[in-house]
Amino acid sequence: MPLQFELCPGRMIGGSHPCFFIAEIGQNHQGDIEIAKKMIKMVKDCGADCAKFQKCNLNQKFNKKALDRIYDSKHSWGKTYGEHKHHLEFSDKQFRELQKYAEEIGIFFSASATDEMSMEFLHELNVPFFKVASLDTNNIPFLVKTAKKGRPMVVSSGMQSMEIIRCVYKTLKEHNTNFSLLQCTSCYPLDPKDVNLSVIPEYQREFPDVPIGYSGHEQGIYITLASVAMGAKVVERHVTLDKSLKGNDHQASLDPSELTELIRAIRLVEMGMGSPTKQMLPCEKTCHDKLGKSLVAKVAICKGTALSLDMFMVKVAEPKGISPETMEQLVGKKLNVDVKEDDSILANMIE
User: What is the pTM of this model?
Assistant: First the structure.
């Protein structure tokens, strides 16, 4: 298959198409649907392509002991981990409300499903693509069931080995060819030394028929910008209204000013990537006409003299003469006119 596919209606990824930017709202909405709507509007205004959330059925994602675990973190919204997660989890009805709001303001809406029941709900919700979070990338039965739904997929690869990613690639290819793999390191916030952007070209070599992207948890915008210069076709970053808010993800998130600058910079870099064809461009003509060098006579040369390299100098000349890269082709040829010292050697002077 070609290295491109339609991730969302009317929006292709891969090939020469622009990088698709996923703004991961996640659970930085503090469990408040009005804050969630404000964040959707914020990421739309900042230029993101998609506002993304997280969806889970707590009893399917966690066992009872995990939910009953005491959670006394400063970021906790409850006494137990289950109470904490319950506070941050939107209902199906609220998800529909958020999706409707995103549609009204004109931004794509999706979510990561971290259990089969949530995946089925998102399928019913008709999200444009499924996002598979890193914690489920090696969950092969879940991947297969998700892939068989036929929707495009974006798969993060945090906490996985190359051997597992090869298995994921092979598994998905059997059921759904429209997927993207994202390099990711699951740490919040992420130390730059653990980012490993070099995995991106490795993925590009191993999986040449799949658009490769980057899901970042580092602070700031520079590393993510570099991922786009390296060819990332999908980028995902967590976003927040305020990094000082309560919650584990805010410190690894971009605030509105950073998000705006990152997306602006990505589009600028994409424009700068341009064409792989190296040639003198029309915009360079003025500089070439003014400063481009050409051949001049190092000494006076009489008509009929056989030319040699020691007769040439390379200068900015008026009028512009023969280009210097062709001087060796002139050796042995003769002039049909006399040329004074320091005059340009023109093409019409050569016999």
Answer: 0.91
Reported as a single tens digit per residue, the pLDDT across 189-224 is 999 999 999 999 999 999 999 999 999 999 999 999
Q: Does the structure show a pLDDT above 70 at 332?
A: yes
Cis peptide before 319 (omega within 30 of 0): yes
CB 239 within 8 A of CB 259: yes
The Cα–Cα gap between 16 and 155 comes to: 21
Q: Which amino acid is at 347?
A: A
CB atoms within 10 A of CB 244: 9
Task: Give the tokens for residue 55.
Answer: 């969806």
> What are 4's strand-pairing partners?
14
Residue ranges in the chain assigned as alpha helix (H): 33-46, 58-61, 64-68, 81-88, 92-105, 116-125, 140-147, 162-175, 199-206, 222-229, 256-273, 285-291
Domains and CATH numbers, the chain: 4-273 (3.20.20.70), 282-349 (3.90.1210.10)
C-alpha span between 124 and 100 (Å, rounded): 14
Q: Where are the alpha helices (DSSP H) in 148-300?
A: 162-175, 199-206, 222-229, 256-273, 285-291
Q: How many residues does the chain have?
A: 351
Residue 73: predicted pLDDT: 87
Place of tokens 């408040």: 32
User: Phi-psi region for residue 332, left (φ > 0), alpha (ψ -120 to 50) or beta?
Assistant: left
Whether the predicted pLDDT of 1 surpasses 60: no
Spatial distance between the Cα atoms of 168 and 164, rounded to a whole number of angstroms: 6
Conformation bin of residue 220: beta by default, left when phi > 0, alpha when psi is -120 to 50: left
Q: Is 159 left (phi over 0), alpha (psi -120 to 50) or beta?
A: left
> Does the pLDDT of residue 229 top 60, yes or no?
yes
Tokens of 174: 């059997």
Q: How far, in Å, CA of 14 to CA of 226, rounded?
A: 17
The token pair at 169 is 């690639």
Distance from C-alpha of 71 to C-alpha of 81, rounded to nearest angstrom? 5
What's the pLDDT score for residue 2?
A: 54
